[in-house]
Predict the structure.
Amino acid sequence: MSNWQNLRQQIQYCLIFLAALWLSLGVPGCSFSPPNSQTASSPGPTQIKQTAQRFDGVTINVITQDETVRTGTKRRIAGFEALTGAKVNLTGVPFQNLYNTLQKDWSSSASKYDMAVILPSWQIDFIDAGFVEDLTARVKSDAAIQWEDIAPIFRNFSATYKGRIYSIPLDGDFHMVYYRTDLLKQAGLTPPTNWDEYLAIAKQFHGKDLNGDGKKDYGSCMSKGSADNNTSLLISIATPFLQSQGTVQGALFDPDTMKPLVNNPAFAKALDIYKQAMDYGIPQDQNLGNSKARELFITGRCALTIDWGDVGPLAIDQSVSKVMDKVGAVITPGTTQVLDRKTNKLVACDKFTCPYAIDGVNHAPYAANIGWTSVIHAKAAPKVKDAAYSFFSYMSQPAQANVDVTIGATGFNPYRISQFKNSDPWIKSGMSSEAANNYLAALGISLNSPNMVLSLTIPHNQQYQFEVLDDVISKFLGNKITTEQAMQQIEQRWEQITNKVGLESQRAAYRATLGLNPIKTTAKEVSNP
């Protein structure tokens, strides 16, 4: 056995062990085992039966993103309609229009949509406006949904606000790196652990024929052609430079002052890496959309990519994939330097500056968007609300969801404990046992990182991320502004939003998402907002 094979096997065994450890320990402060853990004699997550309620004559109007999530939602409509007699009308709109379309519709006196599948980070605006139905009582009386099987980060962070349940998770999202196992093996390389290694691997394979079709291919295919991808990918690069003391430290704002952490050497380094990665991608790839980036990777034209969990299932789609059993997944790259917030300089990782480092590398995986979740309009008719909840419960129940997450086209990634514990559905979907173990282990290691960065979930986050940040990054990638100008514009425009909404309330909201208590406003802050 070669040295590379030995190392690869050791990594694989380590991943499997860590995955098992992760499942037993859960995310920081949470347990992945339900309070009343199932015993060998108790029913498994897909064995609970529920008599379907009939909704003959009831029509539900649903809105969501018009790409993968629409496909995943549509997949379950026919089954639900046959089971309940309800009629489900599904509308898809472009991601960049979804928030504003829903905000406008639910603000009107004659809204068209009864329910929506949206990002959890948007919920707070809709909840505060009184648009979203409180689902707490429904969930607590719904045995079939098996609420405790939903992993705590999604159950408690995506679905819950101020102790009340407002949505039903359908998806679990955070970034990982995907790499071609065959290419790295042939070159005697191991998966990247830091951003320098990522760029070096991308450079090594860029311009070579990676799928045997006689064409030059790419070292790194990062999707950058939409607001969602622009913002989330840059944040994933920046987070290990900005956060090293655990989730409670926060990565986008200083939780004590609410000062944006975007005008410093760490963020400048992230912007530089983001632009460098473009040198090893498709020309002018600042316009590369998510679907195209995934297509390039699964057709064998890229050595590396960064994406949500979708790539694992897509890579085994025999109708399009050229990389069957040639894809590995790993936690997003980390850094050996982190920002010292007191001096505003980069400092080397040590046991104090990077207490959660792995072999001297600080990892801070980003739970980008957390995962798509479903909400019901508070002003919908009572019978429509009942039918809407029943539809979302049906979609989320393990019998349906544990299959849907194994299909790349659905846009839904693992979010239930049973989806991580049982590899059988993944193997049945076409993954080899080795690929399934690697994929689930990489998901588990990322999700269980004590230094995980949570998606921004404060009022008006749509403006912070998908308006301001995307606008500035697009200009930066198009070489219209410099690194320094990009950082200054983000900082100034973010502070304008914070001060307009209210510094104290925004700081309290941000601290709450990190598990921190509010702090008193100083006299200076009151007189100089």
The first strand starts at residue 59 and ends at 65. The CA atoms of residues 145 and 393 lie 6 Å apart. Confidence is low (pLDDT under 50) at residues 1-44, 525-529. The chain has 22 helices and 15 strands.
